[in-house]
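[step 3/7] fold_predict: job queued, chain A
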Amino acid sequence: MRSRPPRPWSFGPLLLLACAKPPDIAGDIESYSDSRTDANVLSCDCPQLLGFADSIQCDEALGPIGTTARQCFAMVLDGHEDAAQEYLECATAAYGVYVNCLETSVSCEQDIYDGCTADHQGALASCPQLPASVQSMFESCVD
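[step 4/7] structure written:
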């Protein structure tokens, strides 16, 4: 029995997979950073619930997610774009829900804040996770 050489088009799908570019996550990083900033700002509306004497101390500790942190996120996530995209999309949604919940606590009630925070932490825990080494470097971008 004669074997036939492979047809050139039979390698097409493999070549496409090998040449596939990772997703562009720049927008995901921005959305995540903006949502986390919103949560930080709202949390600092009630600084005493976080153990701060005033909103100035809280803003200094938490504050907005600035350009340096955003650049750090991009650097840390480089090479892990697929996992990062899944995580960032989920975490951004979790921060959005957290922000909506915190907005209901205009009088800085501890029970409301604690409930919002517990729900938020649960939502983040249910997100697809980054590899452990990447996650720790990612979080260090804002520490």
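[step 5/7] annotate
The chain is about 65% helix and 0% strand.
Residues 81-102 form the longest helix (22 residues).
exit 0
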